[in-house]
Structures are given as C-alpha cells and as structure tokens.
Amino acid sequence: MTTDAPNDRPRILYSCYHSRSREGEQFVPEHIFSYQVAGTMMVNDGEQEFANQPGDFRFMRRNRLLKFSKVPPENGGDFKSISIRFSQDMLRNFSLTHAYKVDGPAFDGTILKLESNPHFKAFINSLLPYLETEAPDPELMEHKVTEALMLLLKTNPELKNTLFDFSEPGKIDLEAFMNRNFHFNVGLNRFAYLTGRSLATFKRDFEKAFHTSPSKWLQQRRLREAHYLIKEKGAAPSTIYMDLGFEDLSHFSFAFKKMYGVAPSRV
DNA sequence: GCAACAGCCTACTGCGCGTT
DNA sequence: AACGCGCAGTAGGCTGTTGC
C-alpha cells in the first residue's frame, strides 16, 4: 500500500500564522486530533462547512479531501492551532500492545467535534510549553502523541472502531464520488485510491460511467460550475477559480474561453 | 483581469503479463 | 474470460512569466 505520510513531518504540528488568512486544500492521509488555540479554521469536505473556533477539539478522519481556510482573530494576533497526527504504524502497534479489537462501524464522516473536558485541556496546557520552544524533543513528542491517543480512547471509546480500522478504501460509486469531489485539485492517482481502484481500473470505470476521460470530464465539470457561478450568482472569476480546482487564473481564463468562446469576465 | 507562449509534466493509450 | 497491474511513448494540459 502507499503511505502518503512521510515520516519526516512532525507528529505534532503547531500552526502559527501571522495576521493572514491561508487557504488551500489537502488530502488527509492520517487521523488527526486537533485543537484550535486562536483564530478560526474553516474546513470544507465537499459537503459541509465546519468552523473550528478557539477552544474547539476536533477529530479528522483519514483518507478525506479537505479545503481549509485559516483566519486570524479579528482583533489582531496570530492564527494558532495544534494538530496531532496518528500514523498507521503507530496505531497498529498500539492496537496490538493493548489488544484493541474493532467491533462496530467506523465513523463515516470527515470531522467530529469532540466535547471539551478537563483532561483534554490539561493535556494541551502540558503540550504548549514544548511547542513554543524551537525544537521540541522528538522522543518526548512521541510520548505526547501516545498520551493524546489514550485520552481520545478514554473520552470517546467508540473511536477505536475508526482509529484501528486499517482497511483501504473500498470500491465505491464513482459517479456520486466524482460529482461530490470534482472541485478538489488532486491527481488521478488520489481519486483512484479514494474510490478503491487502481489507476487503470479507475480510468476504465470512469470511461464506462462518464463516456469520456477523467481529465476532460473534470475540466468540463469545473468550467460548467464556473459558468453557473459567474452567470447566475454574479461571482467574480478571480474569487472562484481556486475553489473549483484551478491553480492559475490565466489558465482558468484560457480554458473557459476555449469552452464557451468568451472570457469569464464577459459572460 | 486577460492573453500569449515556452517548457515541463501529467494523463492517455495500447500492450503484455499475471491473477481470479 | 474478466479483471488488475505496470510500463513506455506520446499528446496535450498546466504552470509560470511577461506584457497589456
């Protein structure tokens, strides 16, 4: 299997952005336990929009596509959040050591809001001093990740069915999945993996379902959406091209004109 | 905000081979 | 037979830059 999580990234990430909103999208390959320290994290999974406010604890499920926007506090200061990621290796070892067995369905959503409690708060308070030093000791951080996992299992025991579910994505309905996620700008490899297929099978199934190639369909679908947003909703090209999975405004404009014969600003 | 363009890189296609 | 995987060559899509 492909592990999309290089081990050189820190297990505990302290995000700190100075007075500026950062937007982007990402594939979440590992389960994440997060805490919002300051500012707001807006997250969209293609179906729902979630707002992580200061003091919120969240659990994010692995193998999901997310768009996020990091908004610093209105009254000034930095956006700050803590993300703790649980690698599959670490979870597998933990489940073996502690004899955890999956006995129910895994959490099917993307983001789970966790009730705040004194244990979580104490844990974050014990963690912050390490994170604010320049280079936290990696071994110590490993222990903190384990501590976070134990707390999570203690307060939300049902999460064991998700945390210790090591199965790969199963073959799912391609048409529904693509219509839900076409605006994520990720490679075909990723789409194939998330729909439980090899790249070759993904392309074959795609051709059967949509009678065109994935890249052509994706571009047309995104441009149709752009046309709708510009014409019906009065959206500006510069504000929507990224939301629709284009990385470059000039290319968006070029592709739009090729399909509709007019530049997006003249619709 | 849009157009043009060069160069890079990704996706498509076709094929052979292995597995179910 | 149907399905799944991997490879190589190639076309064309995308990015980054520049200029208006």
Automatic annotation (TrEMBL):
Record-linked InterPro entries: AraC_XylS_family_regulators, ExsA-like_N, Homeodomain-like_sf, HTH_AraC
Domain (HTH araC/xylS-type) ranges: 172-267
Superkingdom as given in the UniProt entry: Bacteria
Keyword Magnesium: no
TM region(s), chain numbering: none
Pfam families linked: ExsA_N, HTH_18
Keywords recorded for this protein, A-Z: DNA-binding, Transcription, Transcription regulation
Molecular function terms from GO: DNA-binding transcription factor activity; sequence-specific DNA binding
Protein name: AraC-like DNA-binding protein
